Amino acid sequence: MATNPYFKRESVDQKLIEDLIVESIKIHGQDFLYLPRTLVNEDTLFGEDTNSKFENSVEIEMHVASVDGFEGEGDIISKLGFEIRDSMSVVVAKKRFEEEFAHLTSINYPREGDLIYFPLSKGLFEIKFVEHENPFYQSGKLYVYQLSCELFRYSHEDFDTDDDRVDDINIDQVDSVTGGITIPSDPFATNDELETLGDDVFDFTEKDPFSEGDFM
User: Fold this and answer.
1) What would the DSSP string read from start to end of 111-147?
2) What is the tens place of the pLDDT at every residue in 63-106?
3) Cα–Cα distance between 201 and 196 in angstroms, integer?
4) What is the C-alpha to C-alpha distance for residues 75 and 59, in angstroms, rounded to an integer?
């Protein structure tokens, strides 16, 4: 049986829905910076580029879908020390993305590996997955991209975007473990005191307590 001919999915209805979505994101969203990744020496075997660069930045509004705060595992203490594993989901309108990136013919849609700068937390997030079918063909068309992002882990990338909010990040303060700017020291913390007490408990200067030899 054919669909109802009196309720057609015409371009007029699609344009109305699209305009409403764009306006909603402009009202309830935040201004993000989108940083396209430029590959310098891509390793096709492992699918990575340790020398990639970020030479452009485009400001575009996005809506934070994870309204209850950052997702992911949060702040944890592992064998490598203190790690921050924040993640979040953001939504960007396809129409607005195409408008803002019309001057870059190589970028037609958000790409995994690109970065976004979240001004409220002053953090860089890497796009891990781009979902383009949610909502699923509302009135026969797709209107938004939903980006699943994780806190960026710095690995010797170069930043030259002409935007001080990104380029002024002191690379010496970027921690490859936490993936963000090194957390400033807390004057109320007792880290130094605990480290001093720990030296009295374990002494590795003379004998290795984990070796199989006789150290008694």
Assistant:
1) -TT-EEEETTTTEEEEEEEEE--SS--BTTB--EEEE
2) 998 777 777 666 666 666 666 678 899 999 999 999 999 988 88
3) 9
4) 29
